[in-house]
Amino acid sequence: MASAPRSRSIVRTTVRHSRPDPNSERVREARSRSRERLQRQRRTLRPLGWGAILVVVLASADADPVPGVRGAGSGVALAVVVFAAMLLVAIRDSFSERSPELQLAVIATMGAAAVALAGLQTKGSSGVAAGVAVFLAVTRLPERAGLAVAGALTVGLGAATAIAGGSSAAVAAAVLVTALAGVVGLLLSRSRASQDLTELLLAELEDARDEQARAAAVAERARIATELHDVLAHSLSGAAISLQAARKLADREQAGPVLSAAIDRAGELVRSGLANARQAVGALRGDALPTVAELPALIESYRVDMNLDVTLQIEGEARTLAADESLALYRGAQEALTNVARYAPGASTTVTVRYAGDRTSLAVDNGVSTALPRAGMGGGHGLDGLRERVERVGGTMSAGPTGGGWRVEIELPE
After folding, report:
1. In which region does residue 346 sit, left (phi positive, over 0), alpha (psi from -120 to 50) or beta (all else)?
2. C-alpha to C-alpha distances, 73 to 54, 81, 82, 332, 341, nearest whole angstrom
């Protein structure tokens, strides 16, 4: 009875320390939606990038000095080409997959070209070019780095415009355009991050709820297992001991064969019930259930403990089965071998597992034995219980005599 408090303590510890899986399916789906949403936003804004290149090129061609190959015109041409090339790189889908250092270099180079235009053309489109660079800086780079680049470009644009002889209004306008672009970009970036975080937290909340429900189920199963162990298993153990004493008393008093057989039958039922109770307790506590992969160990135990002449054959390519199906095949082999040990001890027996394309089957074939059946094994209804187990997983079972012995076969569809 002292085991019950310990079990409940273990359960409480398990529930308290359980955590949702950070890589669960819901979390992965939330992250996938975030990436898809980001890609859609960038594709939507991509035409604006092409438009910005067109505006800068046309405005530069209409300002003084015009782009050329000599003097200040060559500087204007170089600045326009560098800005356009860097922007084309930045609006590609693959740009976000590049290293942060490369992204920073591309956006900084683009901004430097915009600042150079401001110093070369006082009436050009440097404000638009710098605004695009600032917007990309705050939306593509980490927030601190993006704000630092945006601030540097804004200050550089204002200084270049002033040095080039621009009026106070022109300097203020240039700074205002870039600041506005930075604020819009920052709000868009934070809004997207907030939406991503909200979806991620919702996914983790759903996982936490599922985990809590699973933990509660585990706690309830552990409580039931404890009650079964303390009540049913102990009662059956006591009944088994009492029946053993009754059997010895019947032998000493030279009781008739009918009474002795009845006591033996009751003992078999109690032992079978005790074994089933222990299996049920183990299943409720989450103990690992046997699978087809453990058949070699099972067969070896019957070969050693029961002195059975049994071999295992595997036909086809082995594959992983569902837990219930694998357990049904294992229990089928166990029940069939128990019957061989009881009714045909010493008979040559073969356990065959066949993996076909659309089904998996297990067959246990034994020959004829000349030895007398063993008493005290089995409960008498094992095949009926096995058939019910197999049918619950959608399979079929047959058992009956063959030309030279007995055969039990289980077939499970894929």
Report:
1. left
2. 18, 12, 14, 90, 101
Euclidean distance between the first and the last CA atom of the chain, given in angstroms as a whole number: 45
Which of 51, 53, 45, 58 lies closest to 96, judged by CA? Answer: 45
Question: What's the average model confidence in pLDDT over 103-127?
Answer: 87
* CA distances, 286 to each of 92, 177, 289 (Å): 52, 65, 8
**pLDDT digit string, tens, across residues 321-337:** 988 899 999 999 988 99
What CATH number should be reported for the domain holding residue 332? 3.30.565.10
Contact assessment for residue 145 and residue 103, using Cβ atoms and an 8 Å cutoff: no
3-state secondary structure (DSSP) of residue 376: coil
Domain stop point among 178, 206, 234 = 206
Q: Residue 228's closest CA among 285, 270, 289?
A: 285
Nearest alpha-carbon partner for 286 in 22, 11, 98, 37: 11
Q: In total, how many domains does the chain have? A: 3
Q: Is residue 235 part of a domain?
A: yes
Whether omega before 65 lies within 30 degrees of 0, making that bond cis, reads yes
**Is the four-CA dihedral 329, 333, 335, 339 of positive or negative sign?**
positive
Assign 410 to helix, strand or coil: strand
125: tokens are 């489109």
CA distance linking residue 155 with residue 400, whole number of Å? 93
Cβ partners under 8 Å of residue 387, min gap 6: 397
Angstrom distance (rounded) from CA 341 to CA 307: 8
DSSP 26-68: HHHHHHHHHHHHHHHHHHHHHHHHHHHHHHHHHHHHTSSSPP-
Q: Does residue 339 sit in the same domain as residue 274?
A: no
Question: Averaged over 7-34, what is the pLDDT?
Answer: 63
Q: Kind and range of the H or E element at 177?
A: helix 168-227
Is residue 311 very low, low, confident or very high in pLDDT (cuts 50, 70, 90)?
A: very high
Q: How many CB atoms lie within 10 A of CB 369?
A: 18
Same domain for 165 and 312, yes or no, is: no
Give domain status of residue 350, yes or no.
yes
